[in-house]
Amino acid sequence: MAVGRFANMPRKHHILSYPDHSSAESKPHIRLPNARDIYTLQDAAILAGNAIKATDSPRGAQTTLNFLNRLASDVQLMLRRPARMQYAALCYRIRKKTKALEILLITSRDTGRWVIPKGWPMQGKRAHEVAEREAYEEAGVKGHVQKATAGYYLYQKRMDHGLKISVKVQVHALEVDDLCKHFPEEGRRQLEWVDYKEAASRVAEPSLKDLILAFGERMGSASSPMPKAVNG
Prior knowledge:
Helix 1 packs antiparallel against helix 2 and helix 4 runs antiparallel to helix 5 (206-220).
């Protein structure tokens, strides 16, 4: 049962119930907070603390402690400074016949929305090297990545147990030479080549839309050619 200032919480803050199966007649349910519906980490800590005090079975106590461990893991990742930065590859190609610029989009594994390959920092790798590696792992891309940054965009990343963190993504352009038939995340995503304007319309993040449009305009402008791509 929620106590104190949480007794009259809005419906959005529903509480998960975990029945105690230690007897044929189930005891009163142990009520745990759902991290997706908690406004603050302080709320989560207080509610989880109340659940620990209220439980009277080993099963319930263990379930509550598991929740706290998951929450602590998410908080640790959220507060680590490097975890707030990701590196992405803006994979592109120029059609030989039409000279049209195309952007490679992939779908995310969680929601299926259109995104570009990206990932967290990797020990021993520079930003553009991480972007190049993610492009291979997520889309099977082989090509030439630019060391220079093409731009940045922001998005809200939902962690495994519901908490959201703000992530800044540093983008590196990658000219695609080939797509591997087999790669680490093969079959987990859809891949599609589209016109850069279509790519901008498909992605959800406004700052990524602007970045793709700006990139397309620079590539199409004879007066502002892109710097030559370098490998590694």
